[in-house]
């Protein structure tokens, strides 16, 4: 990488839980999606927190404030749509890294990556959508 593109302070990122919270009985029925829903039934063993049943998400599973939203590289993500928006990250290049928005074309992506290198700004998804251009 380019020098000067390292995060300022590196607090170790600790996740209290990496497994997803799955919806109760989503493993038993195909019609019940795995995405979390709070059980609200009066007799629900999950809601009543019986041992061996799904655990409910609660505030104790929250991340450390210092490392919340921080990428594994140690940066906070900042969505960028064009090369001009990189100017806002000029003084923040040790804290924030640019992430090129999904709808940006290959041509503009290349311009953003080029400008980011000049400003010493890290681009998190600099390899995305560039393979098609190389094949031609």
Show unreliable segments: none
Rg from alpha-carbon coordinates: 21 Å
Provide the spatial order of strands within the biggest beta sheet: 1-2
Instruction: Report the order of strands and helices.
Output: EEHH
Largest sheet report:
2 strands, parallel
| Number of DSSP helical runs | 2
Number of beta strands:
2
Beta-strand fraction estimate: 5-15%
Mean pLDDT figure: 90
Structural class: little secondary structure
Shape descriptor: elongated
Alpha carbon gap, first and last residue: 27 Å
Short structural summary:
This protein has 136 residues and is largely without helices or strands.
Relevant terms:
two-stranded parallel ribbon, 7% strand, 136 residues, little secondary structure
What does this structure look like?
There is one protein chain. The chain is largely without helices or strands. It is built from 2 helices and 2 strands, in the order ββαα. It has helices at 106-119, 131-135; strands spanning 76-80, 96-100. Strands 1-2 form a two-stranded parallel sheet.
List the topology elements.
Layout: E1 76-80, E2 96-100, H1 106-119, H2 131-135
Parallel strand pairs: 1-2
